[in-house]
Amino acid sequence: MKTDVSHERLREAQELGHEARAHPDDHAALKLWLRMLACTTQIETEIRQRLRAEFDISLARFDYMAQLYRHPEGLMMRELSRQLMVTGGNVTGLTDELQNEGLVVRKPSPTDRRAWIVQLTPHGRTGFEAMARMHEGWIVDIFGGLSDTTFQQLYAGLGRLRVQMLADQPEASPPRRGPASTKETP
């Protein structure tokens, strides 16, 4: 891996984050993983702060409302829990809070009397749309320093990585050990 000017600038600014764990002799894949993790953490922290400052809302609530916005017909609470990758208890707590604020409504499922369907209220939908517009602008701004070429290469490369990871998931085999057996060609 070539000398990385950005690493030196981040080190000088004491902003290495997860990258501080890397040693110069570490494999390039490990350094890339730590850089991706550092970027994700930094972006998530920025978005959390902006959501709190602008709308007095947590990222968890924003994500919850985003899932419901994509499903105007509503979602069963267990499906919402699955999509958010959180426990049912977390979803129940958020649902209670947002329902008390008039942002969501909980209705019994017509097909399963033990289940509830949660939907955004009109007030919740309108409020989320305003937040989503600002959120999109923040994301565009954060990535705005990348050239179109860099952006497309990064997007395509990460897409290839995700596809590779799906293809590498064995049915019931133990995890792969050691270096990968194939390398990507440009």
UniProtKB/TrEMBL annotation:
Residues 1-22, 167-186 are annotated as: Disordered. Pfam families: MarR_2. GO terms for molecular function: DNA-binding transcription factor activity. Residues 29-163 form the HTH marR-type domain. GO terms for biological process: response to stress. InterPro entries: HTH_MarR-typ, MarR/SlyA-like, WH-like_DNA-bd_sf, WH_DNA-bd_sf. This is MarR family transcriptional regulator. It comes from Verticiella sediminum.
